[in-house]
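Intended use. Records like the one below are meant for learning the mapping from a protein sequence to its folded structure. Do not use them to infer anything beyond what is encoded.
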Amino acid sequence: MAIFKQKMLWLGTLIVLAVLVIFGAAMMGSVLGAKPKEVPVALVVLDKPAELPGGDSLAVGEMLKQKLTSNTQLPIAWTVVGSEAEARAGLDDRKYYGALIVPENLSAGIVSLTSASPQPATVKIVSNDGLNTQAATVVKQGLGQAMKLAGAELSKTMIERIGAQTQQVPVSVAEALLSPIVVQDEAVHAVGANNATGNAPGLLTQIMWMGSLVTALILFFAAGGAMKAGARRLSAVVWQPVMGVIIVGVASGFLVWMASSWYGMELAQATQTWLFLWLAGSVFYMIQSALLNWIGMPAMAILVLLMFFSMPMLNMAPEFLSAAAHDWIYAWTPLRFAAVGMREVMYFGGLEAVSANAAVLWCVGGGFFLLLIAAAWKRVKPLAQPQPSIEAA
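Structure written out for the chain above:
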């Protein structure tokens, strides 16, 4: 058939395959192979040894510490801290995705289970939901399972000791020792209602990128039309960042209002969320507008690929990413700094919680602003003058 002799058919097939490879790598490459590893968790062991009826001592806290820190099956990187206050400060500073707090009376509580007046033997698992809900869930589930296994081993040991001394174990004691450790769950920096289970910062960042991109395109074409109408190139370029920042400010405010009013997103810091989203959108606009003014429409390929490669990583903890995805994309993409900064604003106390990420955005935005202004002096090929016709001559 003639259609199979057309070069466009085979070239088009190769283009389709290339697009699938590129966007497949962008959308799936960093996600499908993701798994938690070396997730930072604080460990607080305040437990003091308790004396058993037979004269031996029981140090449950030290036993838990040794078992947890030597367990290579848990995808956790432990940091042993000296107090609960220190652990909570680390959670507030975004150092840890969770904490395990072993109180000073844990061993005494275990020993009391064999007495007439048993006391609860509790440990506390604190998850830092605002830092990353997915990582916090992994920490909560992993530590909960570890506590069950430790409780089962401890129950077996205690029953064997009591049986060796009395040759029998009272039913009430046996029942109490079936679950000797009670786990209390606590979540800090909650993400609020209708926040896409903590993914709202990434969603707002993605939408703002698209809004800024549309703004950059509109003003780029408007500047081109103004220059064709006789405006100076310097004037046409200089007005782009001015108008862009204004439009992005209005768009970011509308986005925050829409998320809250239309979709019921709970925003504890609505005004500060808007201000930071305005900063992020302005930085996005500077990047997009600078590339458009220097490269033209081919810059759209760069911007679209940057968006698709960045999007899957915005709501993932960096400890979940492969080394290649982390080092080659996550480490430098501007969308990441915006999304993490947005998370700090929304869940960790507003603009006061934003530090390094805001500084990076200011620097990137300033650099691309200068690059955009410099485009006013870019050499442009003059338009070809129409040649007079022979008849006119």
